[in-house]
Amino acid sequence: MTHSAAPATGIKRWLYTTNHKDIGSMYLIFSLIMLLVGGTMALLIRSELFQPGLQLMQPDFFNQMTTLHGVIMVFGAIMPAFVGMANWLIPMMVGAPDMALPRINNWSFWLLPFAFSMVLSTLFMEGGAPNFGWTFYAPLSTTYAPPSVTFFIFSVHIMGISSVMGAVNVIATIMNMRAPGMNYMKMPMFVWTWLITAFLLLAVMPVLAGVVTMMLMDIHFGTSFFDAAGGGDPVMFQHIFWFFGHPEVYIMILPAFGIVSHIIPTFARKPLFGYHSMVIATSSIAVLSFIVWAHHMFTVGMPLVGELFFMYSTMLIAVPTGVKVFNWIATMFRGSMTFETPMLFSIAFVVLFTIGGLSGLMLAIAPADFQYHDTYFVVAHFHYVLVPGALFSIIAGVYFWIPKWTGVMYNEAMGKFHFWMSFIGVNLTFFPMHFIGLAGMPRRIPDYALQFADFNMVASIGAFLFGLSQLIFVYNIVQCMRQRGCPASPEVWESAEGLEWTVDSPAPYHTFQTPPVIK
Amino acid sequence: MEIVTRIIQLTVLACISVSTHSAWELNMTKSATAIGREIHGLHMTIFYVCVAIAIVVFGIMLYSIIRHRKSLGATAKPFHESTVVEIIWTTIPLIILVVMAIPATQTLIAMYDTETSDIDIKVTGYQWKWRYEYLSEQEQGIDFFSTLTTSQDQMIGLETKSENYLLEVDNAVVIPINKKVRFLFTAQDVIHSWWVPELAVKKDAIPGFINESWTKVEKVGTYRGQCAELCGQGHGYMPIVVKAVSAEDYQAWVKEQKSKQLNANKVEELTMEQLMAQGKASYDKNCAACHQVSGLGIPPVFPALKDSPIALGDMEKHIDIVVNGQPGTAMAAFGEQLTPTEIAAIITYERNAWGNNKGDSIQGAEIVSFKQAQGQ
Amino acid sequence: MSADNYYVPAQSKWPIIGAVAVFLMVLSTALMITGSDTASIFFILSSCLMAYMMFGWFQNVIQESQQGLYSDQLNRSFRLGMLWFIFSEFMFFAAFFGALFYVRTLALPWLDGEGGKASTALLWPEFSSTWPLLNTPDPEKYPAPSGVIEAWKLPFFNTLLLVTSSIFITISHHKLKANKMAAAKTWLALTFLLGFTFLCVQIYEYIHAYQDLGLTLNAGIYGSTFFMLTGFHGAHVTIGSIMLLVIFLRMTKGHFDKVDSESHIDNPDSDHLFAFEAAAWYWHFVDVIWLFLFLFVYVL
Ligand code: HEA
Ligand code: HEA
Ligand code: CUA
Ligand SMILES: [Cu+2]
Hints:
The complex is a heterotrimer. Chain A is mainly α.
């Protein structure tokens, strides 16, 4: 059975599509929009924190911004971007004609715009948007929440369905659609990391759905899951949430590891060092991620044994992550390196992610975390792993593959400029946060004591620098999408390896309808 | 547009204003307790270990970035597998971690030892203030609330910010030095977290449960901290001030508190002007966080009191909601937080401010009898 | 006309309709819960849209399957999809079981003054912890139930029902593979009937709990966990039953007959039974969850 070789035209192409490349593009564009929306909120936060005192907004609105910024960045920007990449790349990398379940794939995507419209619509509701942080601890998010929490809960449900369906699709594709001869140990790293990510998603998104359902019941139907008066416990919310939440942060970093594992070998002109150990390390990180969740809760009054267990298990994660970092460096070592934009972002990724990882390790030391917890030190940690971590890897990946996607080479000079502005901006924004955190500034406050003023000002200036430089990125990729620029060759890069580089640039609408043969 | 002008103003202001504050803080606060110093030491140790790791890792990376570039004619050596190397760089970090875990475990065990305290204080978090009840025999009955005193005007920039901007309260919690003080943390509404960096105590206050922690302060001084768990819009405005004093000073303070406690329920007759004046002061301090200075509230969560059926209706109902609160909402029972006189003043104020013009007033004595009728 | 290539459907309107339907259903539910009167109409309408979508989508799939467009490989995709979807459902229940274990082993003893947060008893001097929880820390807010449902009566009967039904559906599967269509249909119908009976008993039990025992959603954490676990299980039984019903109807229409007259599939054992097997897996899953429920909610 064959189908029309060319894409349908008009809006129907996008609404009805079953093509992994179309769906991938939609995911990526969606996530870019969400990045700008969430980033704008971050800039509002940073404007308010530019100086001590209340300048621009009421405390309650500030909390709404913090909450929506976290939620939108995590669920709207980073995760969909990775799913978009998975859609574009996994079928091409494993030599499959499409994702395993193309219609489900379309459904997964189209749920998202609805979910996020619902989240954003809460801003206009009476009582305002959710204001209890992206971790929405009960009972602030139940008994004491604004009415919009109900809509928030349901949109989380929709996001959950979307993620679960997406993950099922990825798993079925990878397990079932590999071209003959491509056994598991020949799979590209990006495919491996996504396979593991998909399992994490399957295991934890339903738990998130469960916990928001409990909230819903507590709010509207009289249950007492998170109310001691009925025998429940507010801290139980945190346990269930972080059982989801911690694997969630690895969901946001494992695909990043995959992307970087493609880019570094390409520009070092050397095969990835330690492929097998990379696979093992990624799997170990995933397994460990299920038993470390309570490191977010060292101060909730857990019994001593719990505290110790979670401290040790968290520290252990540094080992496999270290293996990955060392492997990347060994790949660069004695290579023949060039520094195109994707490589620059990847190198920055390795350095800055490691800094974020090391501060994570400091947080893992439970007694010290009593001083770090809920301060800007934590904010610094997670922005280091998320912004120059996850986000940089996405940017690197977009520069790396966009010639393949659009058939047009991006503007290299502009790319390099974007890199340097981002690199300076990101450090200017988030490095000072370590200091204000250690000096004692709590998170999630709209106003602060005077001794934190200087570094907050620096951070705010950095944030605007970083934010505005993303406009360069937007311009650069929009030019590619509009086919402005030099056409790219099929290989694009001098020594890129992988099936995706064997097809034309731009990749034809349908690739590998008959599976390629893997040597 | 207002916002835009505001931003411009502020930027200009910020750029010309000379910093009014002390030197830049770069590191974790030095502590006034033994545990705190241990934590600080631990922090420095892991920090140095991390720096060392970073130097090695980034050093090697930098070396290859500089030396092994194509533009210098470097050719790639396609080695890509070595089990020995993998084992080495799995083992070394593991050893480093074990070495770090040992002192961490010791410190943690010490922090968890809340036995044999000299003084017990129950700390309850409210939206957005702290309540301190002394439980030990000697201090029995000392029970007070501690609220932010920084004025609204300082926050919105109409007044210069004081030195301890946002870190100052009406009633500090007072403890003697060199005594083991045990805290029992709980909360009335949502989760709060009691944190004083210099005491190295941070513990969540969870509604319905009690967490314990302890401290033994070595130096006389005033130690400031903040609530560390997001607890709603006033989260940034519930600071903690601990005064550690000598044994004698402590005894004197206890005495003073006890006599204050005895006089707390004394009521005085006030004129309408006095009621309104005191009412406004107390209202702005205790109620405005939710119901706003304007009395307009933040509907639908925090109802407006201007034109509210309760504030304009039956006096009994009005007293009831202020004294007993509304369980399950943020509206706390103020009967135990404020003196009868204050409550009377606030109620009078609410019924006559913002154009409510009800015209009636009430005295503290009536609040006392209301409470007595309810058996309080 | 057997399928060599992996079949990629060209375009489909169902997913976007599905997304809209989910959105509208969820939105109208949220509006209903927050007190809108008119939202229930939207809920009904969007449920119809959802049903229309499912009907259309599945019809598409069935037609494609009948036309023999589906290769072995594609059937494997379906299987993997279903399998891992069921796994995610497991994890959904795991959250609620986790809650149950947490309150039983940690929260309630603490409230009663045992273990690591023993001083909590200062706040609830009257409270003593038992399981099932026949008193709550604050009985005014959460009136405790006066009794509990006894495990070895109706719940045990229900367990027998579900276990038997699981066996029946397996028999039906074997008959189907042996191409004994009449028998397969009979056993499937019996499975469905057992499932249906289970649901009736469950509803009866709920009424009993609410009316005679005061065991309600509002009865403290025991009621909360009890109703959430059994309730979600019941919802899944309902979905499973609908799946069985659909399969039964498809059997009647001859979809699973050995040699299909239109397509020329001659090896039905492995492939085009996917729909049946998916329903059967789901049914087993519901059964396994019930066994956990029976053990941890009723017996222990
Ligand atoms: C992509 C996301 C991501 C990633 C990858 C990580 C990675 C890690 N995180 Fe982070 N974390 C977050 C996102 C992430 N985190 C977020 C969002 C929060 C806050 C949530 C909230 O409250 O809102 C958080 C909070 C958080 C806390 C809670 C802090 C608090 O609230 O008090 C802790 C505590 O243990 C922690 C620890 C760690 C550790 C040990 C790692 C490790 O995986 C890091 C491992 C990496 C390295 C260690 C560096 C490389 C290794 C080497 C070079 C080898 C040699 C090293 C040694 C031997 C030490 N994180
Ligand atoms: C996942 C990713 C992610 C990303 C990418 C970011 C990006 C940024 N974040 Fe963060 N952040 C979180 C995840 C993330 N964040 C989370 C989970 C929290 C915790 C929330 C909580 O406490 O609950 C948090 C909290 C958080 C805080 C603490 C708030 C508080 O505690 O009160 C701050 C404060 O500075 C901050 C700042 C920033 C900044 C400046 C950026 C910058 O990188 C953003 C850069 C800006 C852009 C990329 C936008 C560019 C847009 C324009 C230039 C305008 C153009 C506009 C249009 C076209 C519409 N974030
Ligand atoms: Cu109380 Cu934050
Ligand atoms: Cu974590």
